[in-house]
């Protein structure tokens, strides 16, 4: 209870002698420093908002424009062509300023208007320049003169020292492809997968759609594109992610692994100390916008970074919502069935790695048992969404349960101190790697909080991992965070000779706060039901991870073949050899060249890839196979480039389908597309729900530089 007393700023009691007031100077100091930290962050956001708002210009450029205008006026020249004089006349009506002051104020007002006009012009020019994508389709190493001029202009208009979000206002909106082009690409993508009769039927439906309903739906879609930052992303987030009623564990969430062959320290609390401190360092850079925009010449949209921390997915009966808080000074920790609140700041400063290690060791050494129903509470986030939404409303909307649930949901992120050991170890490293991956993907189905933006898992032997919720961002954004954390942990923070974090410990730090719960038998029954659903799903996952070390992208590039195209063709060849047929193949491509862009589908199975595989399996000559391989590779690259530049197939068709549902009209072609595509729709008149195919074969690969 000592920690509870320390948290109270003042106490008073009424005695016969009067009121006895007791102040806690430590608590008041913490309140003051916490408020000071909050105001500092607000000022930083305000400053960055101004800098980003005037980019690609700078705030100091305003002074340059004012001085330039005043200098030209001093030379008895009027650069405003009479506008300054008109402003001076308006100011003269007030009779409160001298003639000289009126002239100066008029010049400053004109300079400010001119400055804003220049900023708007520069931003529009940069937006138009960033809309140019022909460079992507040019042969590598042979840049056209047009592209060379374009690169020079982009560098001129891009400004200097951009903050993370500086380019957001200059990124172009994602274009809406023509219905005719999308339908043509769709028919081309399904041709190798259909019989002649099926294709003829599909082509007939497509022609009918293109000449009738398609134009009407397209008009509404273009209308949305005029006012929305991105015509796809909000519907994609809502209908593909948030309206899904099946478990997000396995179906949606994804994971990240630690270094396979290196573990910086075998001490669990020490590894956690460095890891959590590295996350705080990244969040500080993110809040201050000190992270450089991901770009070489062309910047990528950084909008997905905004909800990285202090974010949770809240269940609803019809649709979930993503909630984000501006700040959080603690993390939620799970260990042996108990939940803790661990403050990450002391006296307005972040805890050092050594201090975090000490605090986590206190949790590891805590012998207290979990309260009834607490141990498997996280299973609610792993099961179906509707039961979780109802349970949340009925059992967690008041009292101690609401306070504890709020503590988890408003935490910066979630941490699991796992009692298992994972990694490549033992007599069968391959099998241990499979267990490691499955542990990160679903764990025990109750020891991760799958609704949090991401959960960090710290294993007993010092291995770490990450499980991320998918709706708020795509994997490349989380991968950037994860790479920073791993690199900072190993190469910047480091450990002492005993394997502990470096630094000293403040002995006065309060202990981590244990969260309290009052979970009724009815709620425990719902937890058991959700756990059964999640466990059945986890048991149905066949998972295998292996390390291929014979060669990597270096050798593939020497053959002048795209590494990604090579892998995709290899996967299709393997599938054909296993099943004797081709299948619809989904590869995700990013559309972050556009504002608030997320992903697009690359339909990797093409006429060219099928021709290559059939020739290879049919025993054709080496030269024939080599020629078909290059054609298939070039086709795949072309498909990928079209997807990246907004000329994909599936997102456009998906949005047309959503519009048709809003209008209450049916399209046989769009129904056929959804049936034959990667997502299925339910029967509700105005709803589209994503469901992962139960027999889907999901593959993930990372190509090394060997």
TrEMBL record:
Query: What residues sit in the active site?
Result: 470
Q: Which UniProt keywords apply?
A: Acyltransferase, Fatty acid metabolism, Lipid metabolism, Membrane, Mitochondrion, Transferase, Transmembrane, Transmembrane helix, Transport
According to UniProt, this protein's pathway is: Lipid metabolism; fatty acid beta-oxidation
* Keyword Acyltransferase attributed: yes
Q: Which PROSITE patterns match?
A: ACYLTRANSF_C_1, ACYLTRANSF_C_2
The cross-references to SUPFAM superfamilies, in alphabetical order and at most eight, read:
CoA-dependent acyltransferases (SSF52777)
The top of its lineage is: Eukaryota, Metazoa, Chordata, Craniata, Vertebrata
Q: Which gene encodes it?
A: LOC112223751
Protein name per the record: carnitine O-palmitoyltransferase
Mention one GO biological process in which this protein takes part, according to its record.
carnitine metabolic process
Return the similarity comment.
Belongs to the carnitine/choline acetyltransferase family.
Q: Which organism is it from?
A: Oncorhynchus tshawytscha
Q: How does it sit in the membrane?
A: Multi-pass membrane protein
Chief localisation class: mitochondrion
């Amino acid at each position: 209870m000592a920690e509870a007393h320390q948290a109270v700023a003042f106490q008073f009691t009424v005695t016969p002698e009067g009121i006895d007031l007791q102040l806690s100077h430590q608590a008041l100091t913490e309140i003051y420093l916490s408020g000071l930290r909050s105001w500092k962050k607000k000022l930083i956001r305000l400053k960055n908002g101004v800098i980003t708002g005037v980019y690609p210009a700078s705030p100091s450029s305003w002074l340059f424009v004012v001085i330039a205008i005043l200098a030209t006026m001093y030379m008895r020249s009027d650069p405003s062509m009479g506008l300054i004089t008109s402003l001076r006349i308006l100011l003269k009506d007030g009779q409160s300023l001298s003639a000289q002051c009126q002239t100066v104020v008029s010049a400053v007002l004109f300079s400010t208007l001119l400055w804003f006009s220049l900023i708007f012009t520069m931003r529009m020019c940069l937006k138009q320049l960033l809309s140019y994508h022909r460079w992507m389709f040019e042969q590598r190493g042979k840049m056209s003169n047009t592209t060379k001029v374009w690169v020079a202009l982009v560098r001129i208009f891009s400004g200097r020292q951009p903050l993370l979000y500086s380019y957001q206002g200059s990124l172009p909106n994602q274009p809406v492809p023509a219905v005719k082009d999308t339908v043509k690409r769709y028919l081309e993508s399904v041709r190798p997968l259909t019989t002649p009769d099926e294709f003829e039927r599909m082509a007939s439906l497509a022609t009918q759609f293109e000449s009738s309903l398609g134009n009407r739906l397209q008009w509404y879609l273009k209308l949305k594109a005029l006012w929305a930052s991105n015509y796809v992303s909000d519907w994609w987030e809502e209908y593909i992610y948030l309206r899904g009623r099946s478990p997000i564990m396995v179906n949606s969430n994804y994971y990240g692994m630690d270094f396979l062959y290196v573990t910086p320290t075998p001490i669990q609390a020490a590894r956690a100390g460095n890891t959590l401190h590295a996350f705080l360092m990244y969040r500080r850079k993110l809040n201050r916008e000190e992270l450089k925009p991901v770009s070489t010449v062309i910047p990528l949209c950084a909008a997905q970074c905004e909800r990285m921390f202090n974010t949770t997915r809240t269940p609803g009966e019809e649709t979930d919502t993503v909630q984000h808080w501006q700040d959080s000074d603690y993390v939620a920790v799970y260990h042996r069935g108990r939940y803790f609140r661990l403050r990450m700041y002391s006296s307005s400063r972040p805890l050092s790695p050594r201090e975090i290690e000490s605090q986590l060791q206190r949790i590891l050494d805590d012998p207290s048992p979990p309260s009834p129903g607490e141990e498997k509470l996280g299973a609610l986030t792993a099961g179906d969404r509707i039961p979780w939404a109802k349970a949340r409303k009925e059992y967690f909307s008041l009292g101690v349960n609401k306070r504890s649930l709020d503590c988890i949901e408003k935490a910066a992120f979630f941490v699991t101190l796992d009692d298992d050991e994972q990694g490549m170890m033992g007599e069968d490293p391959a099998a241990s790697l499979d267990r490691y991956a499955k542990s990160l993907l679903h764990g025990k189905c109750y020891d991760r909080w799958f609704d949090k933006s991401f959960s960090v898992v710290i294993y007993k032997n010092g291995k770490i991992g990450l499980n991320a919720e998918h709706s708020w961002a795509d994997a490349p954004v989380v991968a950037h965070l994860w790479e920073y954390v791993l690199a900072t942990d190993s190469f910047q923070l480091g450990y002492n000779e005993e394997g502990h974090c470096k630094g000293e410990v403040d002995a006065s730090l309060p202990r981590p706060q244990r969260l309290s719960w009052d979970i009724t038998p009815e709620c425990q029954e719902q937890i058991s039901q959700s756990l059964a659903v999640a466990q059945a799903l986890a048991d149905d996952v066949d998972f295998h991870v292996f390390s291929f070390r014979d060669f990597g992208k270096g050798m593939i590039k020497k053959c002048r073949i795209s590494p990604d195209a090579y892998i995709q063709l290899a996967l299709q060849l393997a599938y054909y050899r296993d099943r004797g047929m081709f299948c619809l193949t989904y590869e995700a491509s990013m559309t972050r060249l556009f504002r608030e862009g997320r992903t697009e589908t690359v339909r990797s199975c093409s006429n060219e890839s099928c021709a290559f595989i059939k020739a290879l399996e049919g025993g054709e000559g080496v030269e024939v196979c080599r020629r078909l391989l290059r054609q298939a590779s070039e086709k795949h690259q072309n498909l990928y480039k079209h997807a990246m530049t907004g000329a994909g197939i599936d997102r456009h068709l998906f949005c047309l389908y959503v519009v048709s549902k809003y209008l209450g009209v049916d399209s046989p072609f769009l129904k056929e597309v959804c049936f034959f595509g990667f997502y299925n729709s339910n029967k509700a008149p105005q709803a589209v729900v994503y469901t992962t195919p139960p027999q889907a074969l999901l593959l993930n690969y990372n190509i090394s530089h060997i």
